[in-house]
Amino acid sequence: MRQGRFQPLVWPVALLMSGGVTALAAEATTLSVETVTLYGTLKLVSDLVFLMATVWLALAIVAVIRSRMRR
Question: 50-70: per-residue pLDDT in tens?
Answer without folding.
Answer: 999 999 999 999 988 898 888
